[in-house]
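Memo subject: From amino acid sequence to discrete backbone structure tokens
Keywords: amino acid chain, backbone geometry, structure tokens, three-dimensional fold.
Body of memo: The sequence and its backbone structure tokens, given next.
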Amino acid sequence: MDFRFLIDFLKHRFTAKSRHGTHSPFVYKLTDEVIYDFNFNKDYNSIEEQRKKLYRDDAVIQVTDLGAGSHLNKNRTKKVKEIAKNALKSPRLAQLIYRLAKDTKPANIIELGTCLGLTTAYLSKACPEARVTTIEGCPQTAKVADANFKALELHNVELQVGNFDEILPDTIAAHPQLDFVYIDGNHRKEATLNYFKWCLPKVSENSLLIFDDIYWSKGMKEAWEEIKENPQVTVTVDLFWIGLVYFKKGQAKEHFKIRY
């Protein structure tokens, strides 16, 4: 583990609070009923069975990396099981995102960074009536994800393949408002801030934006700080692995660190 990342993690553990150290009724309820809800849910089973299959998948695919912007296009081969073990969100984190989506009750969900599609599956299962749009930059990774969607019989997922910078603006424009956006791709400061700014005209007081890997790098930490200070943002919750951004009207501007 990177030494800087480890230091950031330890600092977070020492400064973050549990629900009992939270004085906001909204954040206390969110923490108590959603973030710390570790009860069994039957929706998790089929997705985790699919994860096990991916861990055993020896198929080799060509991975196209557009994560640092359209000027960079790295191609390399990897086994599906290698991607599954190193790139998929852990069950603990993916299931938290499921609970956050279920709590938000969105009519539409946008996910930036499909990978092999398991977090997408959690979003789909959490909100079967929602329109789920997921965007992936790598065609062959997207093909595996699509096969997983079929295996899990997900019927509310639209998979788009291509460069985030080209696809996301049109995807946002196609929605009257944004209810739930999960940004897990292109971990650069400039790109992250662009995605955030593109979303802002369509957010409402019920919207939730989630940013992944907010401690990934110095640039991501700087992007997170800028997002927090935006005047439209009222409440943020820093869970170290992800950051939650809310736009509640009439809510005092507050930033929370919650131990997870």
